[in-house]
Design goal:
Radius of gyration: 19 Å
Order of helices and strands: HEHEHEHHEHEHEEEHEEHEHEHH
Structural class: alpha/beta
Distance between the termini: 43 Å
Largest sheet: 7 strands, mixed
Helix content: 25-40%
Number of strands: 12
Length: about 325
C-alpha cells in the first residue's frame, strides 16, 4: 500500500503540474524517477516536520498541491499546531501521507505507534481523514485526491495487504462502501476502516457458516463520515460492531456512536473493537498487538456472538 501511494504521487505529477512531493528524512532514493523528471517539484527535507507543513502551506497558497510524506506519528503529533493553523485554518489542498498507521511500527514502541491519529486529525475543522483497505483502493483514493479541495490525511498500512476491495463498487471520498454481499435485515452490521475491513470481511464469512448474517460496511473515509449509509444499515441490523486498528477513543467507533446517537431514534447496541485507552506495553509484532485487543477475524466474530447473546437476554 505504501509503495502504491508513493508511486501514485509521481503518476499524478505527470498528469498535473500542480503536484509537489515533500518528504521528511526518508530514503534518499525515494521517488527517484520523480526527482529526476521534476526536480523543481521534489523536496526531501530533514527531521523538521513543523517546517515541511509550513512549506506545504505556502506552496498551496501559490496554487500548488503538495503531497507530504513521513511517519504517521511525526506528521500528526509532532506538527499538530502547524497542521491546524497552517493547513486547516486556511483550508488548503495539502495531502498528508502518514506511514505506519496503528501498530505498523510495533517494534519501535509507543513513540512510533500511531494509535490516535484518526482521532486527532478528525477533530480538526476542514480536515479529511482516510484509511483505505488495500493497494488497489489506494490507487482510487489518490486519483480522487486531485479534485478534493480540502486537506487530506492519508493513513498507510504496512503493505502487502490482501486485496479485498472491488472496482465495481466504485469509490468516492466520503462515501462508505458495502463490501459484503448481504442485503436487507441482518443479524449484525460490521463497520470497519483500513486493514480492519479485511478482518471484518473474514469474520462475516465465518459467521455465515454458523447461520449468522452480517453486512460489512467499509468506511475508507472516517471524516467526512457517511452518516446516511451507516444509519440506514444500522436500522436493518440487530447489532453494530465497529473495528479499527486505532484507539477506541475518538476513532471510527466513536464517530459511529455519534452518528447513531444524533438521529434521536432507537438504534441497535454498538460494540467497539479497537486499541484500549493505553500505550503498548510490549514491543515486537504488529499482529500480536492487534490480536491482544481482538482486532482480527476471531475477535470480531466473538464480539458479534457475544453481542447477539446479550441482546437476547
Amino acid at each position: 500500500m505504501r509503495k502504491r501511494c508513493i508511486d501514485m504521487v509521481y503518476a499524478l505529477a505527470q498528469r498535473d503540474e500542480r503536484v509537489v512531493f515533500i518528504g521528511s528524512d526518508l530514503s534518499p532514493g525515494l521517488l527517484g524517477e520523480m526527482k529526476k523528471a521534476y526536480p523543481e517539484r521534489y523536496y526531501m527535507e530533514g527531521v523538521a516536520e513543523a517546517n515541511i507543513i509550513g512549506m506545504a502551506a505556502g506552496m498551496a497558497m501559490e496554487g500548488l498541491m503538495p503531497y507530504v510524506n513521513t511517519i504517521a506519528t511525526f506528521i500528526t503529533r509532532r506538527c499538530y499546531e502547524q497542521v491546524a493553523l497552517d493547513l486547516c485554518l486556511h483550508d488548503l489542498p495539502v495531502r498528508l501521507i502518514g506511514n505506519g498507521g496503528g501498530y505498523v511500527y510495533a517494534p519501535l514502541g509507543p513513540t512510533h505507534q500511531a494509535i490516535e491519529d484518526l482521532a486527532i486529525m478528525r477533530a480538526l475543522p476542514n480536515m479529511t481523514v482516510t484509511a483505505v483497505c488495500d493497494a488497489e483502493e489506494m490507487t482510487r483514493l489518490m486519483n480522487a485526491s486531485l479534485d478534493w479541495p480540502h486537506p487530506i490525511y492519508i493513513r498507510l498500512a504496512k503493505g502487502g495487504d490482501p486485496v479485498v476491495s472491488r472496482p465495481e463498487k466504485g469509490f468516492a471520498i466520503g462515501k462508505a462502501i458495502e463490501i459484503s454481499d448481504a442485503a436487507g435485515d441482518v443479524d449484525a452490521l460490521l463497520v470497519a476502516t483500513g486493514v480492519a475491513t479485511t478482518a471484518a470481511l473474514e469474520a462475516s464469512k465465518n459467521l455465515a457458516a454458523d447461520g449468522v448474517r452480517c453486512r460489512v460496511l467499509h468506511v475508507h473515509t472516517v471524516k467526512p463520515l457517511d452518516t446516511q449509509a451507516i444509519v440506514a444499515a444500522a436500522r436493518a441490523a440487530r447489532l453494530v460492531v465497529t473495528a479499527e486498528e486505532h484507539s477506541i477513543v475518538g476513532g471510527l467507533g466513536s464517530a459511529v456512536l455519534e452518528a447513531l446517537a444524533d438521529t434521536g431514534e432507537p438504534m441497535p447496541p454498538v460494540r467497539r473493537l479497537g486499541i484500549r485507552d493505553e500505550f503498548a506495553h510490549n514491543y515486537g509484532n504488529q499482529q500480536k498487538l492487534m490480536d491482544m485487543w481482538g482486532i482480527n477475524a476471531d475477535g470480531i466474530a466473538g464480539a458479534v456472538s457475544d453481542g447477539l447473546a446479550r441482546a437476547r437476554q
